């Protein structure tokens, strides 16, 4: 099979989305993305230097993207995302794609963060045996396990009282910068977390079409933000499954306010409000080794593990 390798362009978005969802129909990872979602992610990527389109016979057989972090500390963990169309699997494309993406990551890293060590990483759904075998064959090791949790938003959801001295309010643009700083502080000790710059924050939340401020809530103590639930909605999930899902992208509480039931109350409030907004299910992801015992908070809110993802990493020599 003759392969043509080139960078992706925005003109590839329709074919990339079609390839991705053709793969999802086989892989069943639960991750559905639309052309609009890819347009947003392409807008954040360095397409000329950090992407690959793999073509054969004029068709897109695979694609890959490199995702850098704005403010890496200690080690720069660069994410590699690659998908091979089901019709072109077992042809060795994946074995070429990831190393090529790692080379692109190396070059971008050297240009931007030459004084830091580099590791490339990629997320794999634990049941995807072929994908697991591929990354392990390439030398990647399992660094971390993440649980994807879900809860049905039925009438049986218990309402948890708000702790004394706290209040819960909807997210507002006026508090955007305050929330960013609180989020960075809340996640400072989390594995793999780095501070989000104003630009990265805006791309993920304020300026993202997937961010739903009306379904995102803040916990206040003496008028200051001390906790948050930030949510997203992906219409393609409802279009393809018939289920209206709220994705809870970030949940956090400042360290000095943990252990008081703030996060539990925030989650309970968010789930209750999202149910009245017509959502049928909520989902989120959590590090299985989270040091703040977040998994227990989510389980008490009714969430159950639906899938497990493995964060594979590979150090790259500079």
Automatic annotation (TrEMBL):
It comes from the Bacteria. CDD domains: NAT_SF. Gene3D superfamilies: 3.40.630.30. Keywords: Acyltransferase, Transferase. Residues 3-158, 166-318 form the N-acetyltransferase domain. The keyword Transferase applies. SUPFAM superfamilies: Acyl-CoA N-acyltransferases (Nat). GO terms for molecular function: acyltransferase activity, transferring groups other than amino-acyl groups. The keyword Acyltransferase applies. It holds the Pfam family Acetyltransf_1. This is Mycothiol synthase.
